[in-house]
């Protein structure tokens, strides 16, 4: 009797384990996940170029700290042009959804949208240029969306990265935003050609001769806030 | 009889310790635009040690690290409380954008804290630091962002003159070979003499003079200055 009971219990637990495994593996792959994402521009006078949202697996990275930026990231960071980044991401099997906003996000402004993505373990990366800079972009790097449970909401800070693709001269000919109207993308690279955190802008009022920027264009981290609500 | 018992007792005492010892993998990335980290000290220790503490005067050991990158005094302090540590995991300077991994056993069960320090070059007495983070009990991967601190022991004159000995003014060197010369000096005073958040460097755009030998478009930073990815083993 004891032996039989023990045996059936064991069988039951094996079935449970199997069931749990099937649920764990199959569920996220087949059930679409829906998120409401809201991006807020926290800077004083740095409009953000139309933001890009990339939903991807753990294998994909749109950029890597300490590595040379792709031309697609260079274009986004120097001119706010997200076309190459979106086209490239759409062609990647590890990117499950690539979305680009149509409009600029003004300081203090916010964009909100609802996204439904089919996928297992999802990560979200976000990028948008701080347009009154040489090559700064507000960035979220592979945020694990499994941290947000259904019905929950999380607030995530975006920091300013330096694409490392253009010297931070702040000159009127190289800053494309409304502060200057200078050149956007230029394929030439700076000597320190790697992605890292941005040192902030100096501005003419802090002694940088040749800077077209004034005190209003300075910023500190975080530069944007993303609110992720899982529906 | 005694001879056979003894190893068994040793084993039963040793096992719980080895089961509780935590393997840590520390991955640190220099996030700054153009600043280097001197040889890092990564240490686990008990609650009786702080490598640094904001709002207090820097110890002589901290001062030696912050002004000249010399971690030997802090290493002795870690050893004195039975801590474990990795000295200089990058084998020299950690350049902007680069990362380094250090593996260590937390050692003694009372070593529940993790601390990390390294001087930031070129600065007078700036350092990147993590002060007594409580190591998470649950195995997993945790990410933290580290700030830049000012030891409060030397005026931030921003003059590169080789001065790295405690008490000697000036900045030892600009490892990126992007520093200037002939600066007049940004300030001769250090009004906050406690350990505090670094206000950042000023720099200027004159490599042969001006107030600072630092380049305002290269050597400034915003916090955070480092990213720590901590993997806690089972």
Main sheet specs of chain B: 10 strands, antiparallel
CATH topology call of chain A: Immunoglobulin-like
Overall strand count of chain A:
9
The gross shape of chain B turns out to be: globular
Quick one: biggest sheet of chain A?
9 strands, antiparallel
Low confidence ranges of chain B = 1-19
Strand content of chain A: 25-35%
What is the quaternary state of this protein? heterodimer
Shape of chain A: globular
Distinct helical segment count of chain A? 3
Q: Which regions of chain A are unreliable across 5 or more consecutive residues at pLDDT < 50?
A: 1-28
Task: State the order of secondary-structure elements of chain B, H for helix, E for strand.
Answer: HEEEHHEEEEEEE
Defining key terms:
A: 231 residues, alpha+beta, 9-stranded antiparallel β-sheet, 9 strands, B: 234 residues, Immunoglobulin-like, 10-stranded antiparallel β-sheet, 16% helix, disordered N terminus
Task: Provide a quick synopsis of the model.
Chain A has 231 residues and is of the alpha+beta class. In chain A, 20% of the residues lie in helices and 27% in strands.
Descriptive report:
The complex is a heterodimer of chains A (231) and B (234). Chain A is α+β, with helices and mostly antiparallel strands. Chain A has helices at residues 2-30, 71-79, 83-90; strands at 33-41, 52-56, 95-100, 110-117, 123-129, 136-144, 153-162, 196-197, 224-230. Chain A has one domain (30-230): Sandwich (Immunoglobulin-like). Chain A has 3 helices and 9 strands, in the order αββααβββββββ. In chain A, a hairpin with a 6-residue loop joins strand 5 (123-129) and strand 6 (136-144). The longest helix of chain A has 29 residues, at 2-30. Mean pLDDT of chain A is 89; it is low at 1-28. Chain B has a single domain (22-232), classed as Immunoglobulin-like (Sandwich). In chain B, helix 2 packs antiparallel against helix 3. Chain B has 234 residues and is of the alpha+beta class. The two termini of chain B are 36 Å apart. The A-B interface holds A 65-67, 159-160, 162, 164, 167-170, 192, 194-200, 202, 206-210, 220-221 and B 29-34, 96-99, 176, 200, 202-205, 216-225, 227.
